[in-house]
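TEACHING EXERCISE
Course module: macromolecular assemblies
Task: Read the component lines below, then compare them to the predicted structure of the full complex.
Student: A.B.
Group: 4
Components provided:
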Amino acid sequence: MNLNGTDQNPVLRDPDVRLMLRAKEGDQTAFTQLVAHYQDRLVGVLAHMMQSKDAAEDLAQEVFLRIYRARHGYQPTAKFSTWLFRIANNLANNLRRDTGRRKEVMLNVNDSGPLGPRPGERLIAEKSGLMPTRQYDKTEMCSMVQAALATLNEKQRMAVLLHKFEEMSYTDIAAALEMTPAAVKSLLSRARDNLREKLEPYVRQGTLGTVPEPRSIDDSD
Amino acid sequence: MAKLARLSQEQRENLAAYLDGELDEAATHEIEQVLAASEVARHEVDMLSRTWDMLNSLPTHKASEEFTQNTVATLRAIENPVRSAASQAVARSTRRGGVLALWAALLVACGFFGFKTTNQLIPNDAEQLLDDYPLIENLDKYSEVGSIEFLRVLKDRRTFAEHDDHSSK
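Instructor-supplied answer key:
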């Protein structure tokens, strides 16, 4: 395959696609580079999905194994990251189906270990009863946001994580989640509404000072 | 009243897409007009934006330091058994062939040993006759001689020595 034929196939401009094509030709180093490049991004997203870093690492490894096994039949039809997260999403869905029920275990915010079983909804309800003017510290804020994120359904959560942390466009998210861009627009809108519903009380209680890099919105009118 | 009018579902979706920078130029212009006219829309965008920014407080999880190494090692472990399967099959066939050859050699050796053993232990009449054939052939002559002592005396006296020399020549 002509790796320089980017005019014919714009996807080939993606350096990771080119690495994958090298891996397809048997270049182990290229595949190792891909693993090194995506490991943190994949584990980061999956840790929020699985609510356990260990489970996220296991799943991330399985994603790379699937990609490696499929390398001989690889066709560059989309960005590599889109393909990778589509596989990750499918595997996460399969795992959830196999597990049967979602484990409501929160991540420890300071390290990789699970914090222990703390149902997200209950945590939010408990925190909502706190003093109205109280400023939350970073750890509490993190727990509240994690709990709010945990209340989203799997598809909404994946879309939020891909959009927020992977900065993927609606089109790329649609490709990764095997949906239409219009459906992603609705999905993300509902996800944002749900997050707003859970987190707005804390915004109203004056917690915004603890939020890193707040987006400024001109609401002076 | 328009300032406080509730937003439609489509407008709400467009507000989120507006914040994500996913609207085209016409839709962006349209939503900006809605924002300019509606206090509800402005509040909505504000809250959506602020709660979205709260996601920044989520922890960043990184893969363990050995992740790449472990993953690549796992890939090799998966790859190698596929390659060694063929050599293992050859080794298995060779081992099986060797065992069969050993059994065949053992069987032949047992057969040979059995044959020799039975051949020596069980008396064979025909073989006895073959052994005694020179005696049987000359039995008449030996009967005429009568005594072995007489033959020894004749030999010692060399009575037929000349005849023996001629016959030896």
